UniProtKB/TrEMBL annotation:
PANTHER family attached to this UniProt entry: MOLYBDOPTERIN SYNTHASE RELATED
InterPro entries assigned: MoaE_sf (IPR036563), Mopterin_biosynth_MoaE (IPR003448)
Gene3D superfamilies given in the database record: Molybdopterin biosynthesis MoaE subunit
Name this polypeptide is given: Unannotated protein
Gene Ontology biological process terms in this record: Mo-molybdopterin cofactor biosynthetic process
């Protein structure tokens, strides 16, 4: 785990760090001369959670080698889905965070805003369910860990699932029409 610095020779910046995340630097790094859009998402420690008020701190732990592998996979998948994206930064903090500290940064650039928004949303949503990062919430009544990582769904897998779903729906409609 090193100081989080932007790369100088590639279009992907992936890191996990116990140090505060350089969100402004990530946004500036993501901008390229041919990008008309840069979308940055910051996940920030807040003072409440679902069904829980009074959160005082978060603690993140990670299986660091696997986190970077997952970040690489989801960045590759984002590039498959939105080939026009230019730069992708995914930075995650580990250790104890106070309310208001930045826990995660996702920055994506592209020539147009739609791809940047969609790719950034995909990256943060997929990261939350696939990366082996665990969060403990501390609150006035105790603390609790969340444990629920899943596999990344590729665009091809999603397309196949959607196609099967459409075929099942079509078969149901034909069956209903024949029965009528």
């Amino acid at each position: 785990m090193a100081n989080v610095q932007p790369p100088t020779n590639r279009d992907v910046w992936l890191a996990i760090s116990g140090d505060p995340l350089p969100s402004e630097a990530a946004t500036a790094w993501a901008a390229t001369p041919d990008s008309g859009a840069v979308v940055s998402f910051l996940g920030v420690a807040r003072d409440h959670s679902i069904d829980r008020d009074g959160v005082t701190a978060l603690e993140y732990e990670a299986y660091e080698d696997q986190v970077l592998r997952v970040f690489t996979e989801l960045t590759n998948e984002a590039r498959t889905r939105w080939a026009e994206i230019k730069r992708v930064a995914i930075l995650h903090r580990i250790g104890v965070l106070a309310v208001g500290d930045t826990a995660v940064v996702v920055a994506v650039s592209s020539p147009h805003r739609d791809a940047a928004f969609e790719a950034a949303r995909f990256c943060i949503d997929t990261l939350k369910v696939t990366a082996p990062i665990w969060k403990r919430e501390d609150w006035s009544g105790g603390s609790d860990w969340g444990l629920d990582a899943e596999a990344i769904q590729s665009a091809a897998t999603e397309d196949a699932v959607n196609q099967v779903s459409r075929q099942v729906d079509s078969t149901k409609k034909r069956t209903q029409n024949v029965a009528s």
